[in-house]
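During the practical work, I selected for study one protein's amino acid sequence and its backbone structure tokens, as given directly below:
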Amino acid sequence: MPETQTPTPSSTPIQPASLTPGNYDYLDPAVVPLLSSAALSAANDAQFYALQFGRPGAPRSWSSGSASGQVSVGPYVRVNNLDCREFSHRVTANGQTYSRSGTACREATGAWAVAEI
């Protein structure tokens, strides 16, 4: 009877998903200085959760103080062996609406990065 071998786990650790704090490429640059640190944190959290867990077309909303926003994502697509998603992030601050759309990809490090606007 042939001997079976148990596969050994890969030595490459799985990188946890993240969105780099302080990098707001997914927001319209004109709105960033208008947002408080709490609003930027709320926008960052919403962007991350939408990219990582969001259903295509199901918006994820956030609000902090007088600012609010909404992130929508498309389906996962595989580009150069990376998971990528189109996104749209709309922010309302000081009575004006700012929007930015693009594509974000999850890098080998686990970090989501905007690939194109």
The beta strands are 18-19, 60-64, 67-73, 77-79, 82-93, 96-106, 111-116. The radius of gyration is 18 Å.
